[in-house]
Write a structure and sequence with these properties.
The chain is of the alpha+beta class. The chain is built from 16 helices and 13 strands. The strands form 4 sheets. A 5-stranded antiparallel beta sheet has the order 9-8-7-6-10. Strands 1-2-3 form a 3-stranded antiparallel beta sheet, sandwiched between helices. The protein has a 3-stranded antiparallel beta sheet with strand order 11-13-12.
Length: 554
């Protein structure tokens, strides 16, 4: 960045006063006063006495000359480059807000430096002249103003408009900052380890967040040191304007990154505390609060950055308010999802960790965000369902079930005797009562219905299990128990079947089991049908010898 700033300075710098006419000394306008002050403080025609004429008198000539030099150093050190073509040349100029005959050079950066008209002459105001020593100490703290004066009277050799001692300072500054970085880093490292041990920061992600926070804090300190050190080099104002603006913008960006990392650490600690509580409301609230604070932090940091970039915030806000209507129309779904997320939070149809069926998706709730709810399916896929769909659709919260239900019909064949069916039902009830994971007071096992092809027994047994895997295991145990009981009691399970009754053909088929006689009276179609019927009757007799239902009835 230093190299880029230097190139920009070389390309944009020019000896502003070397080829211009000297000021008239009339001080008849704000332009003439500022021009008088800056012109006679250039190295080509240095005359602090004449430069001090632009300041309201506050002492002897030596004092005024010193104040004039300090004011120039304040402007240069702050990176406040004076654009003479923007200064009004009207002798009767008045401020648009106060309607007073005053002119402020830098209303945003330093409003305390302004000119006023007294006795027909424009000069730096008495208030500004009185504040010059204090402003100078702010720009050059810790006695660095003496260093500036000493160097300023020293090496006068210059290259590209920069003196030799300034080039040396520019070369030594990055080296000093690099060494200072490692000194600060090693000073903070023991503190970081003690904080990590106290808050039990063991996770790799948490350790990285803590290290990043330390690194950003160190970089921010270095930027502040650079901002304090650069004015002491007394570089031209335009150069300082580029460098200091870049450093201040970078400083705010680093503050934003540092704040985001600190928020991560704070919410990691809050998440651990929430995991120890019984309620899941705090688990659901923490991700929403984390994102909210992140958005607020970024928004607050953007304001000073936009000001440094000289963006008109009033016009920007006005433009956003006009475009907000179009944005709201275009982002109806986003607003709808945002409102739905608030409804989910307050209504609490489900919480993080619940197993739900909603929006056509079944899975475990992982995160409830502003726009969507993230769910993990059985195959560990993450699906984001818009919150508006969650609210408008039916939500089945399987995670709130007090028990799981094993419910189906057991069909036995019609040839099973009634006593055998009763023994089978009693054995099923005993098995369900003796199982350790069933809820005994809600067991319903009864003979339920005479179905088309079976006698149905309703098997309805609730099981108290913690998760779906245990539910499947208990369900398997119950089904295997039913199969074993049926085998022990000789009960046969029925399967869907149909009985076909065919009227006999008089004089053509006496015994259905007998071979079809070879008679010329049978057509080809009749013979094929009777052969098929005979095979079905034979198979039925082999599977169930007690089934004496004739093929021919009615």
């Amino acid at each position: 960045m230093r190299l880029i700033s230097l190139i920009l300075f070389i390309l944009t710098w020019s000896p502003l006063f070397s080829q211009t006419l000297p000021p008239t000394g009339s001080l008849e306008s704000p332009y003439q006063a500022v021009y008088q002050h800056l012109y006679y403080l250039q190295s080509e025609h240095l005359d602090p006495g004449r430069a001090s004429a632009a300041l309201t008198s506050a002492g002897d000539s030596a004092t005024m000359s010193r104040l004039a030099i300090q004011l120039k150093q304040i402007l240069d050190g702050s990176g406040l480059f004076v654009y003479l073509d923007k200064i009004p040349r009207d002798p009767d100029f008045r401020d648009t807000l106060t309607q007073s005959q005053t002119y402020t050079l830098f209303p945003t950066e330093n409003p305390s430096i302004f000119l006023s008209r007294n006795d027909g002459r424009w000069q730096y105001s008495p208030e500004t002249v009185k504040l010059i020593p204090e402003l100078h100490r702010r720009i050059y703290p810790f006695g660095t103003d003496r260093l500036v004066n000493w160097f300023g009277q020293g090496a006068q050799r210059s290259f590209l408009g920069i003196q030799l001692w300034q080039w040396i300072g520019l070369a030594l500054l990055p080296v000093a900052l690099f060494l200072l970085y490692w000194v600060i880093y090693f000073l903070f490292f023991p503190i970081i380890r003690s904080v990590a041990a106290r808050f039990q920061v063991n996770d790799l992600t948490e350790q990285r967040s803590l290290q990043h926070a330390d690194r950003y804090l160190t970089i921010w300190i270095l930027i502040q040191v650079a901002i304090l050190a650069i004015p002491t080099l007394q570089l031209p104002a335009r150069f300082n304007e580029w460098v200091l603006h870049g450093l201040r913008i970078t400083s705010w960006v680093v503050i934003m990154l540092l704040g985001l990392r600190l928020l991560d650490l704070i919410f990691i600690y809050l998440r651990k505390a929430a995991e120890k509580t019984e309620t899941k409301t705090d688990d659901q609230l923490i991700p929403i609060l984390r994102k909210s604070f992140q958005v607020i932090l970024v928004f607050l940091i953007l304001i000073p950055i936009l000001r440094l970039l000289e963006v008109n915030l009033t016009a920007l806000i006005a433009g956003l308010s006009i475009g907000g209507i179009a944005l709201a129309l275009a982002a109806q779904d986003t607003v709808k999802n945002l409102i739905s997320s608030a409804l989910i939070f307050f209504d609490r149809p489900f919480q993080i960790g619940d197993y739900i069926l909603a929006g056509g998706v079944e899975g475990t709730v992982v995160e409830i965000g502003f726009r969507s709810t993230r769910m993990m399916t059985i195959d560990s896929s993450i699906i984001s369902v818009p919150n508006s769909n969650m609210i408008n659709d039916q939500i089945v919260n399987l995670g709130l079930r007090q028990y799981r239900l094993v419910h189906f019909m057991i069909g036995v064949v019609y040839s099973t005797p009634a006593d055998q069916i009763q023994r089978f039902i009693d054995a099923l009830r005993d098995m369900a009562q003796q199982h350790p994971d069933t809820r005994k007071d809600l067991i319903y096992i009864y003979l339920h219905e005479l179905n088309n092809s079976s006698i149905d027994i309703r098997f309805r047994v609730p099981v108290v299990v913690p998760d779906f895997k245990t539910e499947l295991a208990v369900r398997e145990e119950l089904i295997m128990g039913i199969i074993r009981l049926a085998a022990e009691l000789g009960v046969s399970f029925a399967f869907p079947s149909q009985s076909l009754y065919v009227e006999s053909f008089p004089g053509k088929l006496a015994n259905p089991a007998a071979p079809v006689p070879d008679s010329g009276e049978w057509t080809t179609t009749e013979r094929a049908f009777l052969e098929k019927l005979t095979r079905q009757w034979t198979i039925s007799r082999e599977q169930d010898p007690g089934n004496d239902v004739p093929l021919s009835s009615n």
